[in-house]
Design brief:
The protein is of the alpha+beta class and about 550 residues long. About 35% of the residues lie in helices and about 25% in strands. The termini are far apart.
């Protein structure tokens, strides 16, 4: 397929005009509005070299006209909220004419914005000569923070708009370990293929030849390695021997390698770091790459690199958060044979960790300690406090200490942490005695669900939240009717800004009565209750349901 570069083919007829880059530029800002990166086209458009503007506030560099500082504040607020902001500006140090500016959220490194500025003359030129390939590319790349999808968007934009083939690589050490090692001339580079696109080929065919996710070693003399090491584009006419051999091992690979006669390797540089490289190829049906294509390739690579690095940073943060969640959530509990227990934890919003915790600890005599706690707030800060209290509570429960003594020790620990206060409900269920002993520290009382669906709150001395220096936490012994279910929960299940806690407790009683009176397991009931009430939640949600198995008390007494 022919490239859309302004040239003449063998027929002598003019080909599609090369997009005019003179009126388009990109740069990035930190959350306060200071310039963090400045592209070559920004220098060409506005006349300021990168060293002169990096670290300067954008209102000192360009947007100095009347009212523009207020507009910058509005734009920064919009991108901080995750939204795109666009406007048409004139005056100040922008230069002559009008400029359309588009501010997009910049993920990672504390946020910020990527700004795309286009001169009105360039917009007019695009209208005169058809859609601008590069401005379309700017809109199509980075629509998500998924690394693979972002790389595919780059390849899809490049083919057939700029080349007949495109392969996007990321630095393996940067992707796998978030470790930056500057490429050096004369040294090999380890990369991961992120995406590829071949004109006229289905995605499945392309992926079979150029497998996404494959880790490769570029030799020191390979064009892609040289592009990453020098920071500039490398033009070449044939694949390096190692790449050619690698592709030839795949079905259809030899034919593929022979069908391209011109190549261009371009480094992907974001925030001064080489995050990978892009390799473009053209067949004999398209004009060979030349130095005249460097500006187009570099501008595309600049945009691609920022978006790919955004996705990389997001992926890294997401993997870290998921790993934290897996480490912070309790493992599979050892539930005594005489008990049936179901539990559910739902973090608020997009969070994966929070301040809620629950635990089940098997005790001698077939008993079990059921614990639910809630650190004020949610997210990593609350989770850091939560995991310490949960670990301490689990350890103390294993010692089978009196309930009041355990809560006092947790209270002393919370006070020494200088952390937000936490609440806790601590119970010990004894199937042999058909009873539960419960003590609470500022927490909502347990709810008892009787056979048939009737419910009632268990009346306990309230106690102060952990960390406030309470002198005592009074335990209460309660008999459990045959077939009754004990429900422990956090306030996220019953309270929100638009629903008073009394209404929330009434809704919980209704949901528990309906779920436990119907068919299904205790796990099914737990899912139905949280699914019904979570729509009103503005905080982490935890629900633990426990009941004595029908034959447990008889069996345990028979062994005494």
């Amino acid at each position: 397929m022919e490239s859309q570069i302004a040239r003449q083919d063998n027929s002598g007829l003019p080909r599609q005009r090369e997009p005019d880059l003179a009126g388009l530029a990109t740069f990035t800002l930190d959350p306060s509005g200071r310039v963090t990166s400045w592209s070559v086209t920004a220098t060409r458009l506005f006349g300021h070299p990168a060293p002169a503007v990096t670290g300067q506030h954008i209102c000192e560099v360009l947007m100095t006209g009347p009212g523009q500082r207020e507009l910058v504040g509005e734009a920064l607020a919009e991108v901080a909220a995750g939204r795109v902001w666009s406007a048409t500006l004139t005056g100040g140090r922008l230069g002559e004419g009008q400029f359309a500016v588009r501010w997009e959220p910049l993920a990672g490194l504390g946020g910020g914005a990527v700004v795309i500025a286009q001169h009105s003359s360039a917009q007019h030129d695009s209208a005169q000569h058809g859609p601008s390939w590069l401005s379309e590319a700017a809109a199509r790349i980075g629509t998500t923070l998924d690394l693979t999808q972002t790389a595919r968007e780059v390849a899809d934009v490049a083919v057939p708009g700029f080349a007949d083939a495109a392969v996007i690589f990321g630095s393996e050490r940067l992707l796998a370990a978030d470790e930056f090692t500057a490429p050096r001339v004369g040294h090999a580079a380890v990369v991961r293929r992120l995406a590829g696109r071949l004109a006229g080929q289905a995605t499945a065919v392309t992926d079979s030849l150029l497998r996404p996710g494959e880790v490769l070693v570029f030799g020191a003399d390979s064009p892609s390695c040289r592009a990453m090491a020098t920071g500039g584009p490398v033009l070449y006419e044939r694949l390096d021997p190692e790449s050619a051999r690698r592709i030839a091992r795949r079905p259809g690979g030899p034919e593929l390698a022979a069908s391209y006669t011109s190549f261009l390797a371009v480094p992907l540089i974001a925030r001064g770091v080489v995050v990978g490289c892009a390799t473009f190829g053209r067949t004999p049906a398209s004009p060979a790459f030349s130095p005249a294509d460097f500006a187009l390739a570099s501008e595309l690579a600049s945009r691609a690199a920022v978006c790919i690095d955004n996705a990389r940073l997001y992926s890294q943060e997401r993997r870290t958060a998921v790993a934290l969640q897996r480490g912070l959530l309790p493992g599979q509990p050892a539930v005594p044979a005489g008990l049936e227990v179901a539990h559910c934890y739902l973090p608020v919003g997009a969070s994966v960790v929070g301040g809620d915790w629950h635990d089940i600890v098997a005790l001698p005599g077939g008993r079990a300690a059921l614990i639910v706690g809630d650190v004020m707030g949610h997210g990593p800060e609350a989770a850091a406090v939560m995991v310490q209290l949960r670990t301490a509570a689990h350890t103390l429960a294993g010692l089978d200490l009196p309930l009041g003594q355990i809560l006092r020790r947790l209270d002393h620990m919370a006070a020494s942490m200088a952390a937000p206060f936490a609440t806790c409900i601590y119970t010990v269920i004894d199937p042999a005695a058909s009873s539960v002993v419960a003590a609470q520290a500022g927490h909502l009382p347990p709810m008892l669900v009787l056979p048939g669906g009737a419910t009632r709150l268990l009346e306990l001395p309230p106690g102060l939240p952990l960390g406030l220096g309470a002198e005592s936490f009074e335990p209460t012994l309660i008999s459990l009717p045959r077939g009754a279910t004990v429900a422990l929960y956090t306030d996220g299940l019953v309270e929100s800004r638009v629903r008073p806690i009394d209404d929330g407790l009434a809704a919980l009683r209704d949901a528990l009565g309906s779920a436990l009176d119907g068919p299904g397991t205790l796990d099914d009931a737990c899912d139905r209750v949280t699914g019904r009430l979570r729509q009103h939640g503005e905080d982490d949600i935890t629900l633990v349901l426990a009941r004595i198995r029908p034959t447990a008390a008889v069996a345990l007494r028979a062994t005494e």
